[in-house]
């Protein structure tokens, strides 16, 4: 059934308290992992950073009703036990009743807008740790990008360390997505080489006053299973594999995730556009295929 956008707007106009009420009454998950022993998260925090493209469509995610429809389909599938988003998306899902029993991760720093001069100075413009706790969510996610040539990286590093400590003080997961980056032709580019990703893992693992609640969100490197063995052996923190853009070869992407999920610290998947906007349009099929890997 299509999302009732008029109903959502009407609720926000006449009863904005309904959002807090829905959060307070929401059924909480009993564990961070599902029956597979893994965490399967649908990522939906792209739009807050102005990222709207998915596959060949540069504005695929701009239609909020369609995005919510796809999220509701994904969250209804067996073994999908989590979602990651900013307040605007998560609150719509709360009002739609789509977050019952789910692990909900609030996205924290969305200020480093792509293509801007301040991109690396990634301000925390989303959820603070206290807001994640007040909403009854299970954790907060932060993107940590480090450009060795940009002094602003130091501020981003410090802000993420503070967020890790703040989340831990509430007993909440800190999901850290670390990358080393460099500017090329004025654009910030992530370094996805195996050695760079290993280095990012070691930096992220050491953030904050404790790592007891820290999980990592990591890319699958091009060096295959051998490269990922090196990446995931760089810490003992639970690692979630990120999906990234809609893959040109979905079967190759699924095969890569399946191989890496056999490694001991691989704790699950965090995938957004690759499942919400698959090339064949079959959200249910794409999600079920990903779930089968667990």
Q: What class do helices, strands and sheet pairing give?
A: alpha/beta
Q: What is the ordering of alpha helices and beta strands?
A: HHEHEHEHEHEEHEHEHEHH
Which term fits the overall shape? globular
Amino-to-carboxy terminus distance: 28 Å
What is the highest CATH level, the class? Alpha Beta
Strand order of the largest sheet: 1-2-3-4-5-7-8-9
Tally of helical runs:
11
Helical content (DSSP H or I, runs of 4+): 25-40%
On the 0 to 100 scale, the average pLDDT is 95
CATH-defined superfamily: Aldolase class I
Radius of gyration: 18 Å
CATH topology: TIM Barrel
Number of domains: 1
**Uncertain parts:** none
Number of strands: 9
Which architecture per CATH?
Alpha-Beta Barrel
**Main beta-sheet strand count, sense and barrel state:** 8 strands, parallel, barrel
